[in-house]
Amino acid sequence: MNRRITPIRVVVAIAALTAVASAAVALASITLYGNDFDSRDKFEQVSRLGGGKPCKHSWKNHKAYGFEARRGNIVCRLSTVVVGDAPRPDHEISVKGKISKATPDAIVDDAFFGVALRASQNVGYEFRVFPGTQRWVLLRRPGGTGFPLDDVDHGVIRKFARGNLIYLSVKDDLLTAKINGETVVDDVADGNPLGEVDGRRVLLVYGNEANSSNDTAGVFDILRIGLP
Fold it and tell me: Which CATH fold would you assign to the domain 7-227?
């Protein structure tokens, strides 16, 4: 088990955390990094990892991380500055996300945002929320016995106006996920070979599962990353 991030990343993380120290933090223990996207420098600390040209981002109203998926049937992944210095690091992440009302009604039910841990382009634990249908799913990449986990939570997931604060942690082989403070995955063990999920990155994800040429739009805000 490894709980450190690379020294270069620590410098960036401490600087960003100091700037947002007064904000409320949803993490349980040690916070490594915080970003409220209230400056261009902070906006640029999150960069595109995968998805190609249809995955767009912008500094939304100079106070949030705006995203667009300019077609359907796509997953866009964004890398934060936090990177483990060994495979399978223990991390936790929380972020507030929202799917914009600009997303067409025809595809809004298939629009999602989420987070990923122990991640790379091809592996990771990925927690997605679909506000249009008030559904969530926890994926394992590669797939394995017991995955994906999913459910519909009408009483927990907000549709659009206020957004949703989501949380994911992985410690050893245990996964925990929350939405707006409510636990939806409670210390579920991954009984598959842990070496298969050997990524080091902490990611934000968004996209749309519909087969469509329409755009999905939304924002991220209040990002926190820590040690569980």
Answer: Jelly Rolls (2.60.120)
